Amino acid sequence: NAGVMQNPRHLVRRRGQEARLRCSPMKGHSHVYWYRQLPEEGLKFMVYLQKENIIDESGMPKERFSAEFPKEGPSILRIQQVVRGDSAAYFCASALRTGGHNEQFFGPGTRLTVL
Amino acid sequence: SQQGEEDPQALSIQEGENATMNCSYKTSINNLQWYRQNSGRGLVHLILIRSNEREKHSGRLRVTLDTSKKSSSLLITASRAADTASYFCATSNTNAGKSTFGDGTTLTVKP
Question: How are beta strands A31-37 and A110-114 bridged, if at all?
């Protein structure tokens, strides 16, 4: 059973371009979370999705950022018109809902660099 | 200050010593989890402790939870150089919701 997969691992974009980050959850997991980590900081929650639904997007910037988790295929975090401040590591986690806990399994992250 | 704050920010010890890291939080929680992150890498899940539990063990790791004080501690016994990493606590107030992370404790274990 493969773990959470993220690609690309490293992404370089110029200001104004679009960035697309992909996350394939663990097999059987229907809950996906996206987090952003700036250097020397902890992870900051961005969005929580289930298949075809956004459950909690309270951590998403209001503009330029969007996320989806379609019925088929990976979850996508999309950043339009990137700026230098978007440079960070973006981590995806997936969880299998069971009664009592929500252990989240993290992917290796995508490191976005905006030039 | 934010939910899930680790203390100290940085800790440096000799191999073989014990390392203790603390985490404080503000609101009620369903569970608290500890993670390790090696430099430039992803997160490795260490232990999850539920709000109705007081202590859990896993190998050289011991986690305690005091909900009255809204705090948790992570103890690593007989530390090794390979334990050098950043350690984060993360809290969740629902069974399947988001986790709120602190800024972590950077542990350096000198050989």
Answer: unpaired
The string of pLDDT tens digits covering residues B71-88 is 999 999 999 999 999 999
Q: Which two tokens stand for residue B16?
A: 């073989």
Interface residues on A facing B, Cβ-Cβ cutoff 8 A: 31, 33, 35, 40-45, 48, 55-56, 58-59, 91, 93, 95, 97, 99-109, 111
User: pLDDT digits over A2-61, tens only?
Assistant: 789 999 999 999 999 999 999 999 998 889 999 999 887 889 999 999 988 999 999 999
Do B100 and A45 make contact, defined as CB atoms within 8 angstroms?
yes
Q: For chain A, where are the E strands, in sequence order?
A: 5-7, 10-13, 19-24, 31-37, 43-50, 53-56, 65-68, 75-79, 88-95, 105-106, 110-114
